């Protein structure tokens, strides 16, 4: 059977875009990334093009992390361990959660579950 | 828009040619469920074809996203109204309409009210399954079920029979798992097995759900992780048609006796798989928008001589 719409191959352009997603956190260890944020930086995770950015964010305990939806489609932020769950975030809506306890917090968008991210809460090394 | 007659002279419409029509047919598709091999014709061509009238016709409409007002389409209610006007002008009144979800954009009461009022103007019964955009109220779907899912089971699944065809509405937008695709869940799959257990294998089956039941493009979540269980359940049937929405564009695949088809949205188009950084709403030149939106028309013809039916133009 022939299909009228053969699926286009992923163009190299998007492949290139995909590999620029920072996997750096895993490679370099949590301490290194945590130290890149100073105490005064707002901890922001942007939602653009159905992607959480940065995909992994490392913060110190007590940090309030804010997600901002930049897409024309609503998203949510839902912890896999059910610790937090945002309402539906329409365009430019924000959701904040304060991480008190050290640990790794995996989360996803309950509307588009292929969208996943992680907040790593760890004491800064000095 | 192309003229279908110039591409396919009467009597020369091959199966392959018919499928090619789907790539540009503006708003209508005509389906036959005859002899286990559903076929599609561009609507204008099919309406002009000669032959006996079909036993019945139904429509698929999808992804109306009432409430959406972003640049890709500032007036999603307006384009839904246009689709309804088009339906009202069809020479043959459809028996009913199946809406494959994302009725609203944000599950707001006003959006559901508006959608209900607009769709009511079609003057024919409507059957719904929810999209993920219809379950965004605080009670995660209560509002949808109260309005559009009365009498359904679980999150809104059900089946019904119409003139010898068995229709199954499934919900694959609930309890989605991190990193996963669309999800049906064990309860719904067990119900499905019981639902079709007593059916003769010659019964034509139409399955509809919001997210494609087959894997279109997992990188964008376009698939259903336990969708293969549905197909396993329906493998023994001679004619199975799977109608989905969610991806706001027409994609079709045929595998044995199963035809998969996704409908256009009435609100905004989305890019072809992998052709954009994300599956978000696609902004096109104003004049092009309506060529990328539309409805699907399904014409059911029962026949007993499969080969003859395949080569016979569909009635319309
Ligand atoms: Cu999302």
Automatic annotation (TrEMBL), chain A:
InterPro entries registered for this protein in UniProt: Amicyanin, BlueCu_1, Cupredoxin, ET_Amicyanin
What are the recorded GO MF terms, alphabetically? copper ion binding; electron transfer activity
Signal peptide positions are 1-34
Q: Name one Pfam family in it.
A: Copper-bind
Q: Name the source's superkingdom.
A: Bacteria
CDD domains assigned to the protein according to its UniProt record, in alphabetical order: Amicyanin
Name all Blue (type 1) copper domain ranges. Answer: 48-121
Species whose genome carries this gene: Methylobacterium planeticum
Q: Which UniProt keywords apply?
A: Copper, Metal-binding, Signal
Q: What is this protein called?
A: Amicyanin
TrEMBL record, chain B:
Q: What is this protein called?
A: Metallophosphoesterase
Looking up InterPro entries in the UniProt record yields:
Calcineurin-like_PHP (IPR004843), Metallo-depent_PP-like (IPR029052), STPP_CPPED1 (IPR051918), TAT_signal (IPR006311)
Q: What is the lineage of its organism?
A: Bacteria, Pseudomonadati, Pseudomonadota, Alphaproteobacteria, Hyphomicrobiales
Q: Which organism is it from?
A: Methylobacterium planeticum
One Pfam family assigned to this protein is Metallophos
**Per the database record, which ranges form the Calcineurin-like phosphoesterase domain?**
57-249
Q: Which GO terms describe its molecular function?
A: hydrolase activity
Q: Which domain of life is it from?
A: Bacteria
